[in-house]
Amino acid sequence: MPEKILVIGGVAAGATGAAKARRTSEDVDITVVEKGKYISFANCGLPYYTGGVIKERSSVLLHTRQSFGKRFNTDVLTRTEAVDIDPKSKTVLLKTSKGEIERPYDKLLLAVGAKTFIPPIDGVEDVPYFTMRTVEDADGVKDFIQKHNPESALVIGAGFIGIEVAEAMLHCGIKPTVVEALDEVMPNFPHVVAMNLREKMLEDGCEVIVKTFVTKLEKNEDIIKAHLSDGRVLETDMVIMCTGVKPAVDLALNAGVELGERGGVAVNERMETNVTDIYAAGDLVEKVNLITGKKVLLPLAGPANREGRTAGTNMAGGDMTFKGVLGSAVVGFEGFVMAQTGLTYEQALQAGFDADYVYTEDVNRASYFPVHGHIFMMTVFDKKTGKLLGVSACGPDTTEKKIDHAAVALYAGLTVYDLEHLELCYAPPFASAKDNLNIAGFVASNELRGSGYLVKPEWILEQVRKNTGLQILDVRTAEEVDEYKIEGAKHIFVNDLREKMDMIDKSRPVYVYCAVGFRGYLAVRNLRNRGYEAYNITGGIEAYKRLVRL
């Protein structure tokens, strides 16, 4: 008899696993069990469907039960919940609308994903709220908007889904207020990068409250009152919980499946658990971070699909391994893009690296091309080896493209010295001749070679606030200086520096800045060649201003 493969859970990992198992072998029986109505849908697209960017509901429904079953010769059971697994008898107890049934298996894939984390807010059980995990969730939000025409929405949480839902509310003509308990929106990003997204949200009409959490919710007729930890009380027409997820591990635990150190299901490279013939993939499993070697939770669609593909291959008799993750991710808001891959500086230090970072900012297309913008980038690397550890960036379209390139560099184990020599596509409408990653490589490599003489804007800001009397030199144009300058800075335009160098006290260090760092670097090299102790503020005044606004 053919082996029986039973997949619990559809969507990313489960549906992908079942499809890959069928592509691997026609000699297995495959059954997919899905608790919800839809076997395969684009849950990452739900906020965009809610906000009207995706017009047709059918666009987010990738497969029906019938189409998936027909294409992959698979038995698909929707609205069916797996309630118990017996590894000894190799059976699963299923709960359907008609009662309970048992299904045998030879190989089992757990792909039940994660569940929305609802914070312990006083009164949350008594107030209607929405989440954004399933098609039914999106339907509920759209139906409420159509029936009640709300003017305001409270979005609790400023992670990926929170940002996307806030944008969707704007598209629906609803004023969103986003409340985030941590210090900044998208708290897994460096604050100096994420604050740019917060400013964009404010600029476009979204209220954003950080370092504050909701303590109580109460409903008064059609109005919901949200009490905040800072004492404020907000009134809103609807509440959407975007407070993150946690692995759905109850079914696995009851089957004797072990969890890892982060609370997700522990698996090996073949996606096998500790229980024979039980595999797991997707948001419920822990992954290996490819840079640190440590286990992480990363509820993203890309890794879930690749894990499902690996499990499906192996369950059907093939041989495949899943190497791990880098944490590559992107979020957008009204045309503004923020993306990162690898480790932040803080994460690199926590992992034991002797890490450093540089700020760079440059155009995403040729500066003379009619449509171009600036990408702000933070590049993290190991000081001893130059190995690239992570890149975070924000800016216009193509920002995500730079992070995609950085992810490939990270996967290949490249150094910042290698970034100097990356040969990437260039034509004025698409990129700059010196790509943003090339620039990051130039700056970081110069610093490691001892010719960059960089100083962090964080330290400069600290000294300015302490009024320590640093000798600071601004080498921008007079027009730029009039717009914004560091208090107490001396101004000499970079082109006039040779003639006016005697205006600088040679007995004291001089800290130089321009807009983003390039002219500052030219000035520092000039000063150093004349015997001055000169340092360039990495990222220039643009990085400094971001820190001031934090």
From TrEMBL:
This is FAD-dependent pyridine nucleotide-disulfide oxidoreductase. Coiled coil: none annotated. The keyword Flavoprotein applies. Keywords: FAD, Flavoprotein, Oxidoreductase, Redox-active center. Its cofactor is FAD. Residues 466-549 form the Rhodanese domain. One of its GO terms (molecular function) is oxidoreductase activity. It comes from the Bacteria. SMART domains: RHOD (SM00450). Pfam families: Pyr_redox_2 (PF07992), Pyr_redox_dim (PF02852), Rhodanese (PF00581). The keyword Oxidoreductase applies. Belongs to the class-III pyridine nucleotide-disulfide oxidoreductase family.
